[in-house]
Each structure stands twice: as C-alpha cells, then as structure tokens.
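Sanity check

After download, print the first record. It should look like this:
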Amino acid sequence: MKRLIEALDHPAWLFSAEGDLVADNAAARRRAAGLGPGGGAGGDAGGGPGGGAQAGGADIAARLRAAVDAVRLGAGPTPIGDGAPGDETRIGEVDWLNPDDPAAGILAQLAPGAAADGGADGGAGEGAGGGEDARARALEAELDAMRRQLAGFRNMADSAPGAVYERVDTTDGRWIYTYHSAGMPDLFGVTAEAVAQDGRAVFRNIDPAEVREIAAKAGAARQSGEQFELVMNVAHPERGPRSVLLSTQPFPQPDGSTVWYGDMADITAQKAAERRAAQAAADARRA
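Expected structure tokens:
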C-alpha cells in the first residue's frame, strides 16, 4: 500500500485507524509540508484559512488533520475545501480506505488539479463553477480507480495460500500493519482487531525466547537490508502447534522508520513429513 501511495502523481496520504500518518508521496509533501508523521500539522496550522484562493501548506495540513479526525469519529467521507470560509472549493476527500475494514486505514487525496505548487489551477473565478465540478469528478475517478486496484489486489492475496503483508516500524517503536491479507492473523491464532491495535500481537502465541531470537534476526536484517527467512513455532489456540515460514525484507525510510514486505506460509504438514522421513531413515540405519 505504501508503494501504491508513493506511485501516485497527485497528493495522497495514508493514515492508520488511530490517525497516524504512515505513508505519503512527493506531491503530498510539497502540498502540505507541515503534516508530520503521527501528529498534527506544524507552523500556523491551528487557525482558519488565510483568505486566498489557495490555502498554504500548513493550512492544508490542518484541514487534512481535522478531516481525518472527523472520519475517525464516524463522519463518513469528508471533503477538503480550499478558500475563504463560505466560499470554499472542494479539492479533496478523506475516507476509510475500506469501510468494511478500518484496519486498512484512512485515505486522503487531493484532486490532480490541486497538486500544482504555488496556486490552484484555473482562474480565480472558477471556484464555484465548472472548475470545481471538474476537480470533483477527477478526484472521484482517482478514488474509484485506486479502490478498484486495491480491491483486486486484496482479492488475489486473500485467495492465495498463506499470507502477505506490509508493515511499518515507526521511530517511536510501534508496528503498524498498513496491509495484510485476510489469512495472516489466523496463522498466529490471533484476531485482525488485535493486530490492528498492536502489531506485536502476532507474537502472543510464540515462546518469548523464540520471539527474542526473531527480534535479533530482524535487527540484523534491518542493518544489512537483506531478506531473511525463518520458521516460527506457533502454539495455535485452536489447531495446536503450527510451523509458519516467514520470508521478509526491510526497507529503511528517510524518516528513520522501516517498511517490511513479507509473506508467510503454514508448513506444519511439510515439517511433519520431514520428521517422519528422518525417523524412517534412522530406523533403517538401525535395522
């Protein structure tokens, strides 16, 4: 999901269900430079619009933050306006990325016409007329295209064996799964809600000593940037002992966070077959 956001040409932001900024792109950083990860906007973001035709970066950041908070409180799709109070032009929208899955996060986008630096596209007289309608249509088309693309990816990932995920390790020590396919929580014997609240919930059914070994290998991989694999032993509360193969790779980010892309598979049957084969070979040598 982070890569999809970064690939967009127009300003787009992805927030966690708790309202923390977890992904944006170059156009977004130019348009709302005051919007910092995990917090509010900087600068003079606390006040209202400056009265010009194009809100400044700090003001756009404040409006984004207010819209994200409104969505979290149940307001539904929330528009982002530009201009003086009472004479605003709708230039963007904030909404749940997937209303049926809050863990997927909150998506904020500005219409492509609002992406230009230093001023809105079009003339000053377009605010309430065709310019606004055109930007609204462009925004809606972008939202629909992105949601279709995401839905297709989710359907493919959810239908495949095992699970795939994207996780952000933040600079303050949190794990945020910005995406995981439907089967991932069950591999660890936990719920999707538990993972959304705390990414480390995936370790609840793994021995603490093994968790420390996993953390050490992950730390080494973070330093080297190399992919690594390991088998995790999960005491599944419903299906008993399970063996889960993890393959993952870290991508350190300029802000100090780390994005992990990985896939997992339940290899319990494979490991059991290997043990049976090894036992049979040992029995044959003793015979």
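If your output differs, re-run the checksum step. Summary of this record's structure: The two ends are 56 Å apart (CA to CA).
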